Amino acid sequence: MAMDYTSYVASLANLLAQQDPTQPEFVQILPSIIAYAEGRCYRELDMLAAEVRDASQTTNAGSRTISLPSTAVTVIEGINIITPAGIVNPDDGTRVPLTMQTRDYVDWVWRSSGTTGVPQVVALINDTTAIVGPTPNGAYQIEVIGTSTPVPLSETNSTTPLTTYLPDLFMAASMVFATGGVQKNYGAQSSDPQMAVSWEQEYSKLLNSAAAWEFRKKFQAEGWTSAQPNPVARPARV
After folding, report:
1. Cα distance between residue 96 and residue 120, in whole Å
2. Which of 68, 69, 95, 132 could anchor a disulfide with 54, C-beta 3.0 to 4.6 Å?
């Protein structure tokens, strides 16, 4: 069942035996609980809902350095160059998927900046820049595909992919932090030293099922389909 910010706060307070969700100590720690839970879930799951495409950057003729999106894409999964009509395809713009390589490879194969053309390979230099080879001979649109970090849950952003699709996992991750002993106790239940361990175990179980779900949604599950993994119907070993 999906949650929103209000129902999340109410459920969290109830699990922590916190009768008053407006208590200053609870309100103060709440953003840290959300940040921990979201950060862990997004890092440990490859969610389809977090996939994005950003085409805000372009190449500069004569420069092998390209700029990457500074905020839209957290983990880059692929980069395309989109050529204008007449460069590769005389009828329409064409996507040229760049092959990921190391900086050493690009430096060695395309040592001269005078060797220009439509880029074919790319090497990431840091979080904001990359180099391509050969050096672009024109201005091409850069399409970056990858995973984003959605806007955090808050009073002004009442739902997220986690509260919509995986509210149980998100709550379990929240309780791992909230009962971990790094913050103020909120009631008798939160004083149980085994509570954080129990929630960690619950989170781990939910994470496994959530990961299988995400694989199915991306057709990366049983036989590269959306089928549920089946421990019985396994293909014969060749």
Report:
1. 7
2. 69
Gap between the Cα atoms of 98 and 217, Å rounded: 25
Final residue of a structural domain among 158, 182, 206? 182
Phi, psi torsion values for 117, nearest 5 degrees: 165, -165
Structural domain of 115 = 50-147
Residues 133 and 90 in one domain: yes
pLDDT value of residue 169 = 95
Number of domains in the chain: 2
Half-sphere exposure of residue 150, counting CA atoms within 13 Å on the CB side? 23
- Please count the residues of the chain: 238
For residue 194, CA distances in Å to 27, 143, 199, 227 come to 24, 48, 9, 37
Residue 222 has pLDDT above 80, yes or no: no
Give per-residue pLDDT as tens, 179-202: 875 444 444 444 556 777 888 888
Q: Is residue 231 part of a domain?
A: no
What is the mean pLDDT of the segment spanning 104-109?
A: 94
Q: Are 23 and 73 part of one and the same domain?
A: no
Q: 115 with 177, same domain?
A: no
